[in-house]
Amino acid sequence: MTREERRALLGDDVIDHIHQCVAEAPAPPQEVIDTLRRIFARPARRTAAELPPAADQAA
Hints:
Layout: H1 3-10, H2 12-24, H3 30-41
Protein name: Anti-sigma factor NepR domain-containing protein
Organism: Streptomyces anatolicus
């Protein structure tokens, strides 16, 4: 779904409310960030040895 399709479906007020809620939410703990990075980096359940080196892994 494109940004324009989401905006047409939800409307500006709902999108603004979502943005406000996200801005007020606390940052997740580092362990959650690390877990999500592993999930998103290996969506096909490949091991780290099977993945090509990431150029921006230090970031």
